[in-house]
Design the sequence.
C-alpha cells in the first residue's frame, strides 16, 4: 500500500511542470492593438478633376420663308446661335427678303398669258445683317418634344431699289419690223400710246440700274424648335419686322412713297448643331 501511494505521488510531481505550461499557454491572450491615431495613414480620396470648360455649342441653320409683303417665296435667312447658356443665347444672322407694296395688283391686260404689275416702278430687295438674343421660354422635356424661344434682333438694312422692267413690242420705223425690248416701266408709262406691253421681264433685269437705300430694322419672333435626331436642327419661326429706310422707296406710280414697312413672316429653319 505504501508503495502504491509513493508511485502515485511521484507521478503527480512529474505532471506538475507540463500542467503549468498548459495554464501559462492558456492564460496568454493575443491582444490586437488598435492602431494609434499617429500611426493611421489616411488614404486621400481621389480629387475630382475640375470640369473642363466646354466650347459653346453652335447651331448653324438656313431658313426659307414667306411674308405678308411678298409672294409664296419671301426670302432666305442664315443664322448662327451659340447655345452654351440654356436660358439666353447670342444670335447673329443675315436676311435677304423681298418686299412688295400691299397696293400692287396685276394688270387685267395680258399678252399670250403673260402679265405684269400695273404701275409698278421698282422692285425692292432688303439685305439685313442682324444681331440679338434669344431666350428659352419652355424647354424640351427629357422624353423629347418641342421647345419655345423668344427672339429679339436688330441691325442695319440695305434696300436694293431695282427698276421694274417690262417687255414691249417695238416697231422700227425705218424697216417696219417689230422686236421685243426690255425697258423700265417708268419709260413705258411716259409713252403709253406707242408702247405695247407684252409682260414683265426677269426680276433682275434692272439690277445694273439699282440704287442702295440704307436704313435700320427691328425683328421680334417666337421660334418653335422641333424634336430631331442626332445633331439635326429643325424649327418654325413666326415673327414681325419693322424696316426703316433713309428715304422713301418708290414702289408704285401715283401712290405715296413710304420710308417704313412692316412685315409679318413665317420661316422654316433647318441645319446642324455642333
Sequence:
Amino acid at each position: 500500500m505504501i508503495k502504491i501511494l509513493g508511485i502515485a505521488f511521484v507521478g503527480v510531481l512529474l505532471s506538475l511542470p507540463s500542467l503549468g505550461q498548459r495554464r501559462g499557454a492558456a492564460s496568454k491572450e493575443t491582444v490586437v492593438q488598435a492602431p494609434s491615431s499617429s500611426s493611421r495613414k489616411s488614404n486621400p480620396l481621389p480629387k475630382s478633376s475640375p470640369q473642363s470648360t466646354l466650347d459653346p455649342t453652335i447651331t448653324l441653320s438656313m431658313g426659307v420663308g414667306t411674308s405678308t409683303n411678298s409672294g409664296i417665296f419671301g426670302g432666305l435667312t442664315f443664322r448662327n446661335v451659340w447655345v452654351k447658356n440654356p436660358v439666353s443665347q447670342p444670335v447673329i444672322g443675315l436676311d435677304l427678303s423681298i418686299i412688295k407694296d400691299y397696293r400692287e395688283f396685276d394688270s387685267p391686260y395680258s399678252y399670250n398669258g403673260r402679265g405684269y404689275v400695273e404701275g409698278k416702278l421698282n422692285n425692292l430687295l432688303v439685305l439685313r445683317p442682324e444681331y440679338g438674343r434669344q431666350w428659352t421660354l419652355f424647354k424640351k422635356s427629357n422624353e423629347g418634344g418641342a421647345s419655345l424661344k423668344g427672339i429679339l434682333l436688330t441691325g442695319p438694312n440695305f434696300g436694293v431699289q431695282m427698276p421694274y422692267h417690262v417687255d414691249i413690242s417695238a416697231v422700227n420705223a425705218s424697216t417696219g419690223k417689230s422686236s421685243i425690248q426690255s425697258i423700265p416701266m417708268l419709260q413705258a408709262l411716259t409713252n403709253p400710246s406707242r408702247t405695247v406691253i407684252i409682260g414683265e421681264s426677269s426680276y433682275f433685269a434692272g439690277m445694273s440700274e439699282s440704287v442702295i437705300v440704307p436704313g435700320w430694322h427691328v425683328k421680334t419672333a417666337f421660334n418653335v424648335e422641333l424634336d430631331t435626331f442626332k445633331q439635326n436642327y429643325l424649327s418654325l419661326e413666326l415673327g414681325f419686322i419693322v424696316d426703316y429706310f433713309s428715304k422713301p422707296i418708290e414702289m408704285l406710280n401715283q401712290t405715296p412713297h413710304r420710308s417704313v414697312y412692316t412685315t409679318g413672316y413665317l420661316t422654316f429653319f433647318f441645319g446642324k448643331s455642333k
In short: The chain is about 10% helix and 50% strand.
